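Bumping with the actual sequence this time:
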Amino acid sequence: MIFQSTKTASIKASLEEAIFNSLPADNGLYMPEYIPQVSAEFLAEIETKTFKEIAVEISNTLFDGEITRSEIENIINNAYDFEAPVVNITPDNYVLELFHGPSMAFKDFGARFMAAIMSHFLVRSEKEIRILVATSGDTGGAVAQGFYKIPGITVTILYPSGKVSEIQEKQLTTLGHNVTAIEIDGTFDDCQKLVKEAFLDKELQSKFNLASANSINIARLIPQSFYFFAAYAQLKKLGKPVVFSVPSGNFGNLSAGLLAFKMGLPVEHFIAATNLNNAVPRYLESGKYEPRPSIETISNAMDVGSPSNFVRLIRFFDDDWNSIRSKVSGYFFSDEQTSTIMQEVYKNTGYIMCPHTAVAYLGLQEYRKVNRADLTGVFLSTAHPAKFLELVDETLGIKTEIPEKLGLLLHIEKVSIKMKPSFSEFKAFLMK
């Protein structure tokens, strides 16, 4: 498959080049030159397929012979020893649980795949790679776990000081070995800006083979499409139109869903559900895209004022606002609304949601108020509630059970390097 820049269509890259370069030279994002369709036979039998079988089929369709099917099977087997189950919460409302991987967040699907496919290419090329990643919470933990002790790869994670949960921070800062955590005195947008500047710096590019593990990297986006197909496979027997409500920050998750749709997945509609960082819902309402500085909320992993994947979002529809609105609706919610729905759902069903999951649930309910009732609504649960332990317990008045792999982290001392949001300081650190 050939990828091209969202800014300059003549800038093209192979799959391997797109993965390791992360960003094109013009600071655009890589998109497939064209989007291939899955076969009708595959969709007709999708309910009989396992998650791994679905992932292999999607990858094989996209990569178009650049990697053999047997190599793809090996990559998928190395990446995934966990599932993406769909759980019924209330009539016609289902939650897609994406927190059964090692870091207990949806980012595991992208990070584990990326580590496996990079390892595949590194064996052939004998390169050494330095990965830079900005995180608002869950990306860093998933990348740290996914790339931990992978030969030929070192990882530097930037996160905003005081703006991630305790468990999230421990996942970033307690591994060591080939993983370094930098605590930035600023916002996620500051962290993301530093990473982007590094990729455009010629001196850094000449010294290191830099790669990004953020959703700006196409190798993070592709595997997130797998679980949209897998959710449909589990719900196909219901015979109703499927609507996905996606809690959104940097908009990689929704972009992956749109990739699945463009490949042929039958989806009635998508919902972009955000907190008060609502640049995309406002765009969907007015047609004007006006990113703003990020606002701190209780759904911190979505505190993104200028989402990088917005350009991919609109490019799937050839930048046509009316076409986007026909397939994507946007809603945003306050912390008070988020806390209230967490309480209501727990009281009525016993299901415990993290705040990001709650935002997705709110988006689905808002959509139902003005659209057809005979649909299957799927809201994405992007993190285990224990990752936001203090907030969840205080909101629900309970004591959440902590999974063992998270609980052990609380007793390990964090190790991070504190830094101001200064590119010169960050560059000096990397050069040393």
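The tokens above came from a reply further down the thread. The two ends are 37 Å apart (CA to CA).
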